[in-house]
Design brief:
By secondary structure, the chain is α/β, with parallel strands linked by helices. Helix 5 runs parallel beside helix 6 (170-184) and helix 8 packs across helix 10 (274-287). Strand 1 and strand 2 form a beta hairpin. The model is unreliable at 287-295 (pLDDT under 50). The protein is built from 10 helices and 13 strands. The two termini are 25 Å apart. The structure holds adenosine-5'-triphosphate. Adenosine-5'-triphosphate is lined by residues 18, 26, 28, 46, 48-54, 195. It comes from Nocardioides furvisabuli.
């Protein structure tokens, strides 16, 4: 039975280990407690090997946890996938090169009994103009948008994306997220794994930072940045104090005491980068206990 009040995702004590090539054990995911409410947009951010893909695989029922539980809309992941409530855009996974974009969407729509959604999902993935193009002639970014269109066919409540923009150039990445953003505005729950700090920053309201299989921070993306970065101040000094040996030392001392009366121009205050926060958090995580989930 589907629980209509259940969170989109609830994991408790999730753990997965693998046998390493040297015969030892790799703990890929450890003690992951996570609750994602319907309508949230959440980034799983972490360096290589942090456990993002393994977590995503368990959310989708593709990998069975060694310990702990995972529920999607109050049921097992497999049940949620069967019910069309969750679908995924994975890094790998085949598209048929000989099909056109539209034929691909039609084929999957027919499988789901949702041919009524073909035009709509093409539009949502910004593929309407590319509908007659053969898959093999599509760029990597366009193929990822096609996978996104396929994921939307069953009109899922939750879309899970595993590093969906890997290998795309900046323009393709922006186009992909533009399509995602338009769709997310309609209230879908979106969880995505990414290496790209900028993507979490630009798109996710909440960032779950993973390192060594654990959640090391879980907060509003703006809080992640604010908690660890502070702000950066840059400015241009008056020409009179900018000599061949650098900025006049006396003047710099005065700047430290009081900025305002010194005729400083072009003051630029910028938010601390999420990158700084990320480095601080992952460095911290390797030496201390996890900070733990904030929710
Ligand atoms: N099938 C497997 N067999 C052995 N080890 C594995 C397997 N799958 C994952 N691992 C290991 O588990 C750890 C977590 O891997 P995972 O792919 O979940 O990380 P990730 O955060 O998604 O990394 P990436 O960003 O590089 O994709 C890594 O140390 C990885 O080598």
């Amino acid at each position: 039975m589907t629980d209509t009040h259940a969170p989109a995702i609830r994991t408790s004590g999730l753990r997965k280990t693998f046998r390493a090539a040297d015969g030892g054990t790799v703990v890929a995911v450890d003690a992951v407690d996570l609750v994602v409410q319907p309508g949230e947009i959440v980034a799983f951010l972490g360096p290589n090997g942090a456990g993002k893909t393994t977590t995503v695989d368990m959310l989708l029922g593709l990998t069975r946890p060694d310990a702990g539980t995972v529920e999607v809309f109050g049921t097992s992941p497999a049940e949620a996938v069967r019910a069309g409530r969750v679908s995924a855009v994975m890094q790998t996974g085949g598209l048929l090169n000989d099909f056109t974009v539209e034929e691909t969407v039609r084929a999957i729509a027919a499988l789901h009994g949702r041919t009524d959604r073909v035009e709509l999902v093409l539009e949502r993935a910004r593929l309407t103009d590319l509908a007659p193009r053969r898959v093999e002639a599509c760029s990597g970014g366009e193929q990822q948008r096609l996978k996104f269109a396929l994921a939307l066919v069953p009109d899922p409540d939750l879309v899970v994306l595993d590093e969906p923009t890997t290998g795309m150039d900046v323009g393709a990445r922006q186009e992909f997220w533009r399509a995602m953003r338009a769709d997310a505005a309609l209230g879908r729950t979106i969880v995505f794994a990414t290496h790209y700090l900028a993507e979490a920053d630009a798109f996710a309201e909440r960032t779950v930072l993973m390192n060594h299989g654990r959640i090391v921070h879980d907060a509003a993306t703006t809080d992640v940045r604010a908690a660890y970065g502070g702000r950066t101040l840059t400015f241009r000094p008056p020409a009179a104090v900018d000599g061949t040996d650098g900025i006049d030392a006396d003047w710099l001392a005065r700047v430290r005491r009081a900025l305002a009366p010194l005729g400083v121009t072009d003051v630029d205050v910028s938010a601390a980068s999420l990158e700084a926060a990320f480095l601080a958090l992952t460095a911290e995580a390797s030496t201390t206990e996890p900070i733990g989930a904030a929710r």
